């Protein structure tokens, strides 16, 4: 299985079928793939919509958290369960365009083996003012402390090697720091311009508080990890 598309969701019942349709339309006939949805203990009928969708989308697999655990845990569990050697992630709100997955795959095809993460870069944001400004501040603070050379770590659209990801340290909110963690592990990252769409269904789960301030302690923790890392080549004698 070359590619697994992992989609974390929480209370996204109206976005399930449209996004599944776009993923399938983009990838069918082009590559072998599976779609792994991880329902983070939704309180609406997200799970029922997903279960009904399997009749139309045989590529679909469904995981469900017994307790709401957050986006990073949903991504982690989805990657652990995935069968593909490479993982593409998408936010479940429909703001990432699945049609951009081939852009990431094309970038991988011409990149050196050192590049293990291809990160979507939303060059034109389609969010409200408060969301844009909090992301801009958070990106600026993060770049100043971590020097991760990534203009947009918050984009949910990413492509990375599964084996590499599973060697990274897991913690809540780790998805916000993936480029820094990948570089800390000695690999390279590449940002790829992608589209960004306004949310047309459902309600955003992030605001100024949980997007900016909650991540400060995590940011200092990741900075500590990077300072304490020692990388060296290894010779077998």
Q: What report would you give on this structure?
A:
This protein is an alpha/beta fold and 237 residues long. It has one domain: Spore Coat Polysaccharide Biosynthesis Protein SpsA, Chain A (Alpha-Beta Complex), CATH 3.90.550. It has helices at residues 16-27, 46-53, 71-81, 101-110, 129-146, 162-165, 178-184, 208-213, 215-227, and strands at residues 3-9, 33-39, 60-64, 86-89, 115-122, 158-161, 188-194. The protein has a seven-stranded mixed beta sheet, with helices on both faces. Strand 1 (3-9), helix 1 (16-27) and strand 2 (33-39) form a beta-alpha-beta unit. It comes from Metallibacterium scheffleri. Residues 4-165 form the Glycosyltransferase 2-like domain.
Strand order of the largest sheet: 3-2-1-4-6-5-7
Total domains, how many? 1
Annotated CATH architecture:
Alpha-Beta Complex
Provide the low-confidence segments as ranges.
Answer: none
Number of helices: 9
Largest sheet report: 7 strands, mixed
Helical content class: 25-40%
Order of helices and strands: EHEHEHEHEHEHHEHH
Number of E-state strands: 7
What general form does the structure show? globular
Question: What is the CATH class name?
Answer: Alpha Beta
Structure class: alpha/beta
Arithmetic mean pLDDT: 86
Strand residue content = 15-25%
Backbone CA Rg = 17 Å
CATH homologous superfamily heading: Spore Coat Polysaccharide Biosynthesis Protein SpsA, Chain A
């Amino acid at each position: 299985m070359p590619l697994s598309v992992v989609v974390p969701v929480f209370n996204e019942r109206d976005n399930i079928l449209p996004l599944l349709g776009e993923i399938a339309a983009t990838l069918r006939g082009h590559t072998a793939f599976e779609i792994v949805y991880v329902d983070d203990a939704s309180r609406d009928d997200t799970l029922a919509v997903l279960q009904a969708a399997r009749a139309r989308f045989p590529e679909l697999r469904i995981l469900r958290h017994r307790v709401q655990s957050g986006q990073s845990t949903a991504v982690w569990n989805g990657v652990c369960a995935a069968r593909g050697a490479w993982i593409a992630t998408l936010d479940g709100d429909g703001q990432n365009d699945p049609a951009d997955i081939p852009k990431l795959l094309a970038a991988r095809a011409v990149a050196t083996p050192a590049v293990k993460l291809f990160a979507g870069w939303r060059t034109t944001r389609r969010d409200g003012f408060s969301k844009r400004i909090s992301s801009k501040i958070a990106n600026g603070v993060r770049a100043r402390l971590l020097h991760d050379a990534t203009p947009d770590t918050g984009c949910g659209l990413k492509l990375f090697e599964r084996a590499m990801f599973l060697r990274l340290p897991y913690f809540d909110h780790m998805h916000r720091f993936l480029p820094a963690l990948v570089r800390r592990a000695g690999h390279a990252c590449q940002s790829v311009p992608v589209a960004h769409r306004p949310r047309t269904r459902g309600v955003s789960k992030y605001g100024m508080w949980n997007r900016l301030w909650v991540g400060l302690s995590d940011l200092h923790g990741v900075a500590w990890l990077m300072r304490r890392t020692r990388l060296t080549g290894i010779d077998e004698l």
